[in-house]
Amino acid sequence: MDEAGVVCYYQSADVLADKDIQAWITKTLEAFARKRVRERLVPRLLEMAAERSLSISAIRVSSAKGRWGSCSSKGSINLSLYLVLLPRHLQDYILQHELTHLIEMNHSPRFWARLDEVCAGKAKTLRKEMRQYNTSFLIQNL
Fold first, then answer.
1. Does a structural domain hold residue 76?
2. What tens digit of pLDDT does each residue of 32-58 get?
3. What residues contact residue 13 under an 8 Å CB cut-off, 6+ apart?
4. Is residue 2 part of a domain?
5. Structural domain total, the chain
6. Distance between CA atoms of residues 135 and 50, nearest Å
7. CATH no. for residue 101?
8. Residue 4 C-beta-side C-alpha neighbours within 13 Å
9. pLDDT > 90? residue 109
10. pLDDT value at residue 1
């Protein structure tokens, strides 16, 4: 799993039909994705937070499939391990989105204005681009 995607080699399609092997592959890919988020995205998130003089109380990596990230009112940011499947510019958009919630805990016009400041005026364009991605589609196309 990298900028180009994931490549898995196998000798027989019968191998992939086995439910236990499917479960093992899923568990292994999720563990790898979780590690990538910790190694690559968490440091980027911390760097972006420092650039914006923002404080994060905790960072967690989840296997959430319904949302890419979230921010609690206590300043904790959760990142989905599936973020590693997005292009880098969309990963950065999600990270900035969650950081903006440290300032504005809503999606008000003020939130979008603040996010726009750090997204070169492209927050709504990036939001629209994100709508073509969902974790179900990405997981099926691993």
1. yes
2. 999 999 999 999 999 999 999 999 999
3. none
4. no
5. 1
6. 29
7. 3.30.2010.10
8. 2
9. yes
10. 46
